[in-house]
Amino acid sequence: MSSSPNSASYQSFRNLPPLAGLATFEAAQAPGLSVEACVNRLKRLHWSFRRLHQIFVHRLVSEPVYELKMAFSLHAHYCAEHAAALRARVAEMREPPLGLDHVPDAALDLFFDEVLSAPDTAALLAGIYRHALPELLVALECYAAATNPLVDHPSLRVCRFALLEVREMEAYGRRALECFGTEAAALPEVWTANLSLLLAQAGGLDGSAPRAAGEPRRAGAERPYVFNPVPARDGRFSDPYNMGVHAEAFLYDNTLPAAPKTLMMFYKRLREIDVPEVIASILAETSGKPWEYSVDMTRQLWDEARHAMMGEVGFLRAGVDWRQHVPINFTWSLALNTQLTAIERHAVLYFIEQGLMPKTGKRFEWEVGLASGDPFAALAQDFDWADEVLHARIGRDWYVRAMGDSKTATAYGDECWLRVLIDWEKYRSEGLTAHQNWWPGLYAAWCAAHGAEPDARVLAFATNYSQKRADLRELTASA
Q1: Which of 18, 156, 243, 270 sits most deeply, having the most CB atoms within 10 A of its CB?
Q2: What phi, psi does 382 have (nearest 5°)?
Q3: Over 90: is that where the pLDDT of 466 sits?
């Protein structure tokens, strides 16, 4: 008489790992979550990533601390990607309408509203990294533990990838909160307590916990959030209106050597801190687009932040402290964010990108990096060039297609760029900057760091925007 096999006695061929290594037979027999229960939780996970993306994007522009501006760029990119993966998975499990653009829970949405409108940087960090991301981490871990590892493997895989980067974000946030010390510890108790209460009233971030009683409310008086498009800088950016050095005039001067030109390229890269601010403002003030638009635009936003950090690293490698020698201006993002609409900003962004593709653009900068003998300068420009090719594709997909054709899109970008006023003389007359020519000091510091004798031609460079009658539009066209 044969007996029925059980998990203990049932063996795979030569005892190979069963079930493609996904799980033991015991784990695969667990009831797990139903499709409906999975979808409900996944929708809330999706909504959490989506709202976090919004918070990072909206608060990036007006956040003055450079390091946080860069981190928000990266974390917005992560959230956009994981929201997209969850959207795709939910679409595989249920026929439309999927309801992914609808608020899944009022208390949960109010929780993210509170974080979005945090009154200052310390409160914002606490809301994101002490409350939202730890809860998202727990929700992802709970989903992975509760679902059947075989039948729901596609969802489990999405969650595992998300967990990698949520843990990274949460770890960054813990360190950031430690850096803010007493400021992050002394937040209003009524605000922090309300964040915990709202999550409890939502049944936890994933909705699986018992719900706390009570009507979800904002802490204190109602204060509708308003996006602030004006870029901010911390105190290390001591002269943000300074337009005293025309970097491209130096870079494209064939009579000057390649090695010091890397300093101008590092300046140009670090100056790209303002591009994420413009893209963030476009995202914040554009509605009605598919989520893929947010994914692509946030990828570009993150790439531009990477470029700024490449400049920072370049200066460090060059042995000079940019904070002492290089005033990074924000006049471009300030002008675009305050003078143009979202679609007009996108038009200008596309128009400028077209000037970066010819041989005299990104390829030229890469060649300068190679000629300089600095392998990092060459590497940075190599990847900067590759990124700009991607950004041109993003522009074609989302801006040109909306405008109808490339000719119309380019002409409109040119028209919008012509309307942007970056007033060199006004900045000086109002005492915002003296437009100091900072190049001789930077070059001298670089020569001292490398034990090199200054080249008189290089040291004498003093071309500024006013003398060249080159506003930012002409500057871009020359590139």
Answers
A1: 243
A2: -60, -45
A3: no
Over the chain, what is the mean pLDDT? 91
Domain parsing of the chain, residue ranges: 30-201, 247-478
Instruction: Compute the distance between CA of residue 419 and CA of residue 336 in angstroms, rounded to an integer.
Output: 10
30-201 and 247-478: identical CATH topology: yes
Q: Is 286 a residue whose pLDDT tops 90?
A: yes
Could you read off the pLDDT of 379-430 as tens digits, one per residue? 999 999 999 999 999 999 999 999 999 999 999 999 999 999 888 889 999 9
Please provide the CATH number assigned to the domain covering 30-201.
Answer: 1.20.1260.10
d(CA 288, CA 278): 19
Query: Cβ(206)–Cβ(426) under 8 Å?
Result: no
Q: For position 134, what pLDDT does the model report?
A: 97
The pLDDT of residue 477? 42
Q: What is the pTM of this model?
A: 0.93
Distance between start and end Cα atoms, the chain? 85
Q: By the 8 A CB rule, do 435 and 464 touch?
A: yes
Torsion on CA atoms 462, 362, 323, 254, rounded to nearest 10: -30
In words, the CATH class of domain 247-478 is mainly alpha
Give the number of residues written for the chain: 479
DSSP conformation class of 325? H
Output 14 or 221, whichever has higher pLDDT.
Answer: 14
Could you tell me where the DSSP H helices lie in 117-221? 121-125, 133-146, 153-185, 189-201
Give the HSE-up count for residue 301: Cα atoms under 13 Å, Cβ half-sphere: 34
Q: Which residue's entry shows tokens 């079930």?
A: 19
Interval 292-321: pLDDT, tens: 999 999 999 999 999 999 999 999 999 999
The answer to whether 271 and 102 have CB atoms below 8 angstroms apart is no
Please count the other Cβ atoms lying within 10 Å of the Cβ belonging to residue 55.
24
Q: What is the mean pLDDT of residues 97-104?
A: 90
Half-sphere exposure of 220 toward its Cβ, with a 13 Å CA cutoff? 11
Contact 434, 304 (CB under 8 A): no
| Distance (Å, whole) CA 349 – CA 400 | 12
Distance CA 322, CA 299 (A): 27
| Token pair for 126 | 């606490």
Looking at residue 460, its pLDDT comes to 83
Mean pLDDT over 242-256 rounds to 90
DSSP 116: H
What amino acid is encoded at 96 in this protein? Answer: P
8 Å CB contact between 445 and 452 = no
SS3 370: helix
